[in-house]
Design brief:
Strand order of the largest sheet: 1-2-4-3-5-6-10-12
CATH architecture: 3-Layer(aba) Sandwich
Order of helices and strands: EEEHEHEHEHHEEHEEHEEH
Shape: globular
Strand content: 15-25%
CATH superfamily: Alpha/Beta hydrolase fold, catalytic domain
Oligomer: single chain
Largest sheet: 8 strands, mixed
């Protein structure tokens, strides 16, 4: 799929957030990508094509320091990226929105829902990873923790990219101020979670923890026994599109 040039939303500090917005009927759909991911991924573009085919409003974007947006990745935090998502929600979209959050985007999705509950028509989490900095820190060796305390950054090898992940101490410490699973979250809208049980990065049981925290009447989790973290295989994409479109029609 050939990606056209994005539009840009300029934040108060001058940072430009790259986005693609397709107008159409509501409720709209917003895609929030994962850590070091961008809006040109398989899921983001497949959802765009599906929404265009059905005439539905769709928006995908890059957080600061990601993809085609301005900024340095290493200066990013969960709070800044959530603010970028809220800026897109507030300034680019109108009316109720279904927020789709992949991996870290599942954390951003929940923060956006807490901040703008009146704008939410539904949530769809794909291997959602809220509060992942806690699990990340617990999994670090003493040597890695010492590196973070000394240098402020640890460059972790990535299974998905040639470039290592730059994990900063600031990301972890600021992330601890953005936790969403420490208390119950009341939801008045439907929530769907898709998670692969062969996910090596985000344990599928975490989706059960999320469900325990969400206080609502319409919450469904779907597990794929062979699914990996990305959930980008054809059957995964078909399930995602069906899930989003079914929510949009309720």
């Amino acid at each position: 799929m050939i990606d056209t040039k994005p539009a840009f939303l300029t934040r108060e500090d001058g940072t430009r957030i790259a986005y693609h917005h397709t107008p159409g009927t509501g409720p709209g759909v917003i895609f929030c990508g994962g850590f070091m991911s961008d809006m040109t991924g398989t899921k983001a573009q497949a959802l765009e094509a599906a929404c265009q085919a059905s005439g539905r409003t769709y928006t995908r974007f890059d957080y600061r320091g990601h993809g085609q947006s301005d900024g340095q990745f290493e200066k990013g935090t969960i709070g800044l990226w959530a603010d970028d998502a809220l800026a897109v929600l507030d300034q680019i979209t109108t009316g109720p929105q279904i927020i789709v959050g992949s991996s870290m985007g599942g954390w951003i999705m929940l923060l956006a829902a807490k901040a703008r509950p009146e704008r939410i028509a539904g949530l769809v989490g794909i291997a959602p990873a809220p509060d992942f900095v806690l699990r990340m820190w617990e999994g670090f060796s003493d040597e890695i923790k010492a590196t973070l305390r000394r240098d402020g950054v640890y460059r972790a090898p990535s299974e998905y990219d040639d470039e290592p992940y730059a994990i900063t101490l600031n990301l972890i410490e600021e992330g601890r101020q953005q936790l969403v699973l420490q208390e119950d979250l009341k939801v008045s809208y439907p929530v769907r979670i898709l998670h692969g049980m062969a996910d090596p990065d985000v344990p599928w049981r975490q989706s059960l923890e999320i469900v325990e925290r969400l206080q609502g009447d319409d919450i469904i989790v779907t597990f794929s026994k062979s699914g990996d973290h990305r959930l980008s295989e054809p059957d995964d994409i078909a399930r995602l599109i069906h899930t989003v479109e079914t929510l949009a029609q309720t």
